[in-house]
Specification:
It contains eight helices and four strands, in the order αααββαααββαα. By secondary structure, it is α+β, with helices and mostly antiparallel strands. The radius of gyration is 25 Å and the shape is extended.
C-alpha cells in the first residue's frame, strides 16, 4: 500500500492504525496553515490575488464584507473634545478620538465629564488574574500618597499626554498577583511606566539579584 502524504507539506502521515482514523494533515501546524489560507486558491474579489481565507475571500475582503454586519459601526462624538469618532455600536467604553483625550479622561482631570472608573476596572482585572482579595482603591489616592514619585527609581512621574512616555504615572503591585500579591492599598505603589515595564511580574529582590 502506498504511503499517504500530508495535504499541506507532502510529508508522510502517521499510520492509520495508530491514530484510529485516516488523517489528512500530519500535524496541527499543517492543519492550521492549510485551513487559514488556501495555498492554491485566490480571493474572488476583482483584482485581488491574495490567498483565499473563507467564503471565497481573502482576510481583508472577508473582514470588509462580513465583520461590519456582526459589529455595526456608528458615528459618535468624542467625550472630551466632541470630534466625530467611528466605532462599534455595542462598545461599552466612553468614546475618545485620540490617545490624548483617552489619557485626560482616564485621569479624570476634566470637569463635568464622567471619567473612566479606574478603581472598578482594576478590581475586576485583579480578580481575573487570580487575586483572592481586591479592594476598591482610587488611583489618585495612591499617586498622591507617594507624592507622584516612583518607588523604584525615585523620579517624579507625571500625567503624560502619551501612555508610552516612560515617566508617565502608573500603579504597580509590589508583590505581583501571579506570586500571591493582593489588590490592596498596602500592595499598591506609584511607579513610572519605565520601571513598571521592566519589573513585570518580578519581586523587588529579584530585580536587584
Amino acid at each position: 500500500m502506498a504511503q499517504r502524504t500530508c495535504a499541506h507539506c507532502d510529508g508522510p502521515l502517521p499510520d492509520t492504525a495508530a491514530t484510529g482514523r485516516p488523517r489528512k494533515y500530519c500535524t496541527r501546524q499543517c492543519l492550521r496553515a492549510a485551513t487559514r489560507d488556501s495555498p492554491t486558491k485566490t480571493c474572488t474579489h476583482p483584482g485581488c490575488e491574495r490567498a483565499m481565507r473563507a467564503k471565497g475571500l481573502c482576510s481583508t475582503h472577508y473582514n470588509q464584507r462580513y465583520i461590519p454586519d456582526r459589529h455595526p459601526r456608528v458615528e459618535v462624538p468624542c467625550t472630551v473634545c466632541g470630534a466625530t469618532v467611528v466605532r462599534a455600536r455595542d462598545s461599552r467604553r466612553l468614546p475618545t478620538c485620540s490617545v490624548t483625550c483617552r489619557t485626560l479622561l482616564q485621569h479624570g482631570v476634566l470637569s463635568g465629564v464622567d471619567h473612566y472608573d479606574w478603581a472598578c476596572d482594576a478590581q475586576r482585572r485583579a480578580l481575573r488574574l487570580g487575586a483572592t482579595t481586591a479592594h476598591r482603591v482610587e488611583r489618585d489616592d495612591i499617586l498622591k500618597g507617594d507624592g507622584w514619585r516612583c518607588y523604584l527609581c525615585h523620579i517624579d512621574t507625571r500625567i503624560a499626554t502619551s501612555p508610552f512616555d516612560p515617566r508617565s504615572a502608573t500603579v504597580d503591585h509590589v508583590v505581583p498577583i501571579s506570586k500571591g500579591g493582593q489588590h490592596v492599598r498596602e500592595n499598591l505603589r506609584c511607579c513610572c511606566l519605565g520601571c513598571n515595564s521592566s519589573k513585570q511580574a518580578l519581586l523587588i529582590d529579584e530585580l536587584t539579584a
